[in-house]
Amino acid sequence: MFEAFEQDGSMDRIVHHPMGDMPASQVLGFRMGEVVLHGWDLAQAIEVDDTLNPAAVQAVWEATMPSKDMLASLGIFGDGPSGTVADDAPLQIRLLDLTGRRPQVVRR
């Protein structure tokens, strides 16, 4: 499996995905988003520090933003973005909101 990622141009290859055909780099971003965001979900559930790695948050933000307009319609991100988070809010808060999460308390 790893050999496929090591080939030149592997991230530019088109992948057949339920959301439509897209570059492998975008699918990889989705998968990374699942790990990062479900890590936050788990931290919330067990009431531990839910601060995410800033580099991971940035990467998931960049991978998710191109799909922001369709997130609410997918039905897998709750209601999608609330529209109530300021543009200058911390990126983790903006990412959580973008993906339908509404943290009550952000633990640090």
TL;DR?
The chain is mainly alpha-helical and 108 residues long. Helices cover 46% and strands 4% of the residues.
Radius of gyration, in Å, reads 15 Å
Structural class: mainly alpha
Mean pLDDT: 85
Work out the helicity level: 40-55%
The quaternary organization reads as: single chain
The percent range for strand residues is under 5%
Major sheet: 2 strands, antiparallel
Summed up, the helix count is 5
Give the SSE string.
HEEHHHH
Low-confidence stretches: none
Strand order of the largest sheet: 1-2
Cα distance, first to last residue?
Answer: 37 Å
For the record, the count of structural domains works out to 1
Q: Based on Cα principal axes, name the global outline.
A: globular
- Quick one: how many beta strands? 2
Written overview of the protein:
The protein is globular, with a radius of gyration of 15 Å. Helix 3 packs across helix 5. A two-stranded antiparallel ribbon has the order 1-2. With 108 residues, it is mainly alpha-helical. The N and C termini lie far apart (37 Å). The chain has five helices and two strands; from the N terminus they run αββαααα. Strand 1 and strand 2 form a beta hairpin. The protein has one domain.
